[in-house]
Amino acid sequence: MRILIVGAGIGGMTLAALLKQRGLQPTLIERAANFDHAGYMLGLWPLGYRVLHGLGLYDRFAADCVECKDYEVRDNHGELVKHWSMAPIADRFGPNLSCTRPQLVKLLHSALDGVDLRFNTSFQSISQTGDEVAVQFNDGKIETFDLVVGADGIHSKVRQQVFGEQPYYHTHWGGWVWWVDPAQLPRETFFEHWGAGRFFGIYPTKDGAGVYAGAPAAGEFGEPGPGRGDRIRARFAGMGELADTCLAALPADSEDLFFWKLSDVRSRDWARGRVVLLGDAAAGFLPTAGIGASMAMESAAVLADELSRTNNRFMEHALSLYVKRRQHRVESTQNDSRHLAKMMFIKSATVAHIRDVATKFYSLEQLASSIAKAFDEPI
Fold it and tell me: Are strands 3-6 and 147-150 parallel, antiparallel or unpaired?
């Protein structure tokens, strides 16, 4: 079975490792030159790292992570709104583990010995004829495959070429991301300041605490260059001691800083003929629930499962089973991430105050009901 996976991100590499484990030999292409490109912080719920158990990678992964034992929401001025212990979830299903994206990518890469992994490689066109998919690569060469998997992210070229334009969901917020020495902050607590017209999140990892400072993306807030630091410090002044510690570590204006615009996408269809979507290419996630990577890995496990139990003749039926098992579950958790965004990203001080009062009465399960439900459901 000739399988091409487009995109060596978390979903694509997880799928490649699982297919290799099942005796298949996929081809994996990545447009970047290597895995040295910058990454950011991410959390894995048990939904995702259960897959690492199956690959024999979990112990190495967990040793490099920070467990999120507590989650605190603070208000516009840094005062505590609500503290949740993660113990009820951790004791029953497993902890939420925090790492950096490069850590997870390098771990998955270590499971790909013998896989045809091609860096500096992209495609120009995809065309389907009968039981074959012809792919023309950026060097002009054409190869044929039995299946093409689009795992090339939220702005998927596979999705655009094969499925057409799909609806994006825009929050119209964005934020700057930088790192802070973890010794300056509590190690096992995630902090989020749900402000009015501003949001400030602090997420510890083993090597550093990731900071996300978000606000409506219009105007000068998202502009790089001279004055960037002053604009950020002015926007987030008065959010309390934790925010002040992070703002003091803000890199100089001359240094590169990633500005993350918060949007997602949802493809109406996930499979068409012998082309199928995986991870953010099928349904991208806002970072609000910290569930996107876990969903991509879980989807990779289901797709590998279906592909390992079929042959080339019945490929399209296997893909339809994958979609039936995954699309509703993924879109339900995606809805949770959108709901959380509407709670977190509020401009009005009056509405933000009402939200803060209401949040005091939320349980963690109520805050993200579909995600909590997913822990106890089969895939």
Answer: parallel
User: In 3-state terms, what secondary structure has residue 93?
Assistant: coil
Computed from CA positions of residues 212, 195, 339, 190, in that sequence, does the dihedral angle turn out positive or negative?
positive
Sign of the alpha-carbon dihedral angle for 371, 375, 376, 379? positive
DSSP string, 239-271: S-HHHHHHHHTPPPTTS--EEEEEEEEB-S-SE
CA distance 273 to 135: 14
Tell me whether strands 66-68 and 199-204 are parallel, antiparallel or unpaired. Answer: unpaired
CA distance 168 to 18: 30
82-99: per-residue pLDDT in tens?
A: 999 999 999 999 999 999
How many CB atoms neighbour CB 19 within 10 A? Answer: 23
CA dihedral over 30, 32, 35, 37, signed as positive or negative: negative
pLDDT tens profile 17-76: 999 999 999 999 999 999 987 678 999 999 999 999 999 999 999 999 999 999 999 999
Interaxial angle between packed helices 101-109 and 10-21, expressed in degrees from 0 to 180 and rounded to the nearest 10:
20
Phi, psi of 8, rounded to the nearest 5 degrees: -100, 55
Residues 290/207, Cβ–Cβ less than 8 Å: no
Helix axes 46-54, 292-308, angle to 10 degrees: 40
Q: How many residues does the chain have?
A: 379
Query: Both tokens of residue 233?
Result: 């410090």
> What structural domains and CATH numbers belong to the chain?
3-44+51-68+99-168+266-345 (3.50.50.60)
For residue 248, report the phi and psi dihedrals to the nearest 5 degrees. Answer: -65, -20
47/293 Cα distance (integer angstroms): 9
